[in-house]
Fold this protein.
Amino acid sequence: MPNEVIRAARAADVPAVGSVTEEAYRPYVARIGVRPAPMDADHAADVAAGRVFVAEEPATGRVIGLVVVEAHTDHLFLDSIAVRPDAHGTGVGRLLLEFVDAHARALGLPEVRLYTNAMMWENRRIYPKFGYEAVERRVDGPYDRIHYRKRLV
């Protein structure tokens, strides 16, 4: 298990949130033909609203991953998960997904929902391994998205 610390993002983290998001989603631009929506999100507003949680290396304080979440009355929406490419395969993504589950439970929410672009086939293989089930495929503007949910016990 990684030694990273997950904490609420602070205003000083906004540049790192933008950088991690850009690095994580950049490989998909050519594949899907548009910039993934998280790349153009208002990171400062998301951080200010308390929606962003970062994974940082304890020794360096470097942000290597993050999640952007939004609480609704009946679920927690996982808007974005991003891990720096040089941290792929280290367990940071797993740690972030486990954090999302724990955060939803702490808020008393019975379900986590998310979507991913249909062309991001890596994600389509990963999410079911973490208990997510595909529930719908829908085109939203330029995005062909697969919607998932995970019911928490």
